[in-house]
Amino acid sequence: MTAEVGLETVRAGALTTVQDLGRPGYAHLGVPRSGALDLAAHRLANHLLGNPETAATLETTLTGCAVRVSGRTTAVVTGAPCPVTVDGRPAPWGQPLHLPPGAVLDVGAATHGVRSYMGFAGGVDAEPVLGSRATDLLSGLGPAPLSDATVLPVGTPPPSTAVTVTDAAPWAAPPRELVLPVVHGPRDDWFTAEGLRTLVTGAYRVSAASNRIGLRTQGPALARAREGELASEGMPLGAVQVPPEGQPVIFLADHPTTGGYPVIGVVPAEALDAAAQAPPGTPVRFVPSSS
Question: Which terminal residue of the chain, N or C, has fewer Cβ atoms less than 10 Å from its own Cβ?
Fold first, then answer.
């Protein structure tokens, strides 16, 4: 019988959360989807371990995280490249690592991008809420962000034949400019023609105030054609909402499900993985899209 495996946080880092594919389907109850911000990196970690893509990983932010494993397991680090060590010895990023009981896996600060993903054979087995183990920072659902000495269980690992140690994670360094396609509407009529031009021609940058709820931008204000605010209405993932100061905010996984500021357009979900990896100061350019 395989011994149970657990994780104990040695170094929590700036923000480390448990994430999976989220809990879609509850927006009508005011519950965001949540889930991994870089879904491709999350899915890749599970693929390299032979896990289903629904298995939970740990999502780190900028400064990484370190955990001690209580039993023998296999782990992998994907997403933002970073130095990886096992018991202080350098280990490969993007390749499955066989960890003995008591080993400390340390994921260092991201050298490119923002968020790294720590996957474990069997997945992080936190208690699910509404069918998901994802930490939702807006609603407070799911496990709390990791702190030092947090203990989490690991699920039953897949068959050993599913883990291919020769597989490696591909990585393309984040572009120097974050290019986001945007489909105009539903409230683009709240902005002047000049405001609409500014959205696609203005020089924007990622704000340091960005988080899992939204990627905030700094740049020219978008001129309004109407005064006041809307009654609250539904907000989709990728909504480009414009608060009173006029600078766009792109809603990410933990976004509120309703809001009263006008949405000038929507960034398709498939473009949001890149937004999750754009560090503060990255130039942002919005490009008109029809889909």
Answer: N
